[in-house]
Design goal:
The chain is an alpha/beta fold and about 325 residues long. The chain is about 35% helix and about 15% strand.
């Protein structure tokens, strides 16, 4: 008879087989533990991905490898309480099969909603070739997006699909100097996508913002995602410029501290277990927008990156406390 052994995570398994590692949520610090029952149902706070070993003690009960968290950590992340969304960043780098989305949906509560980044295959104007950058033939290809991005999102996530985000990286001089033409192509693309999902658009070129872009987003039935990034105007400026784009949900991705470059922030903030550079002006402005949107009975999705202040979970917990500091 096979004897029970213990794997590296302390879970018994039969000799010759491996048990699924168990990842448990951390115990929230006392100052945060009363937040969850007070958070409005329309407020969805979440991080960019969930597989960070440095979150041991913040999100996860014990230190666990990145690979194990990527495969088995989502349930613990969602069970912690305050986080009711997460951004699935892997979609930017290649299509995610419906079965993978279904496994994510099975791991989270019924009120959890995913934000999913669509692939660079449809949002990058140019792709790196073997020796140089080449024009992307699938840029704003609605037929490809419908089959490879939208269909798996709908089939796999069902009602737990919150936002399907088309995040456009810097698009280059030729596109930036012709905002009306880009807006027209964007509107045609968005209008050709299957009805049903909640689509959002985020850009990295401030030059493309304006009435043409706002009209394209609104008339296609999509929504603008405010991207907090040094390449873009501050939060309230974006909000003002894009006020005509949508009266729907507030969608914000808090990506990067205004004084940092991406790699610089990664090195400075790792392992992402504390707030290093608090950005209180942005946090306070975000809290104000959250309260206004919730008062108007609009859904709110706030995605925080570790590179915004040093630790995405702590940024969101501080934001939640700020949102709740005044009556809603």
């Amino acid at each position: 008879m096979k004897q029970a052994q213990f794997d590296m995570f302390g879970q018994p398994h039969e000799s010759g087989s491996l048990a699924t590692p168990v990842v448990e949520p951390a115990r929230l610090a006392p100052e945060w533990s009363d937040l969850t029952p007070r958070l409005p149902a329309r407020l969805h706070l979440g991080t960019s991905s969930w597989s960070f070993p440095g979150w041991a003690g913040l999100v996860y009960h014990r230190a666990t490898s990145e690979a194990t968290l990527a495969q088995h950590g989502l349930g613990a992340y969602a069970a912690l309480g305050p986080f009711r969304t997460v951004c699935v960043d892997r979609g930017f780098y290649g299509p995610v099969p419906a079965a993978a989305f279904a496994s994510y949906a099975d791991a989270v509560p019924d009120d959890f909603r995913f934000v999913v980044k669509a692939g660079a295959a449809v949002t990058s104007a140019n792709l790196r070739g073997a020796t140089s950058w080449q024009p992307n033939p699938r840029f704003l290809d609605a037929e490809y997006a419908a089959h490879e991005v939208v269909a798996p999102f709908v089939e796999g996530l069902g009602d737990k699909g919150g936002v399907l985000l088309f995040q456009f990286p810097p698009l280059g001089h030729e596109i930036r100097r012709k905002p009306p033409q880009f807006a027209a192509r964007l509107q045609a693309f968005l209008s050709s996508l299957p009805a049903g999902p909640r689509y959002a658009v985020e850009i990295r070129d401030a030059e493309l913002m304006g009435p043409w872009f706002a009209r394209a987003v609104r008339q296609s039935g999509a929504h603008y995602c405010i991207g907090l990034h040094p390449r873009m105007p501050p939060l309230l400026k974006q909000r003002s410029l894009m006020a005509a784009a949508s009266d729907g949900p507030l969608i914000v991705r808090w990506n990067l501290h205004p004084t940092q470059a991406y790699e610089q922030a990664r090195a400075r903030y790792a392992p992402f277990d504390r707030l290093v550079d608090e950005d209180r002006p942005t946090r306070n402005a975000l809290a104000k927008l959250c309260r206004e949107s919730l008062a108007s009975r609009r859904d709110v999705f706030i995605i925080a990156n570790n590179k915004a202040e040093g630790s995405a979970p702590l940024s969101l917990l501080a934001l939640a406390q700020s949102v709740l500091s005044k009556p809603l």
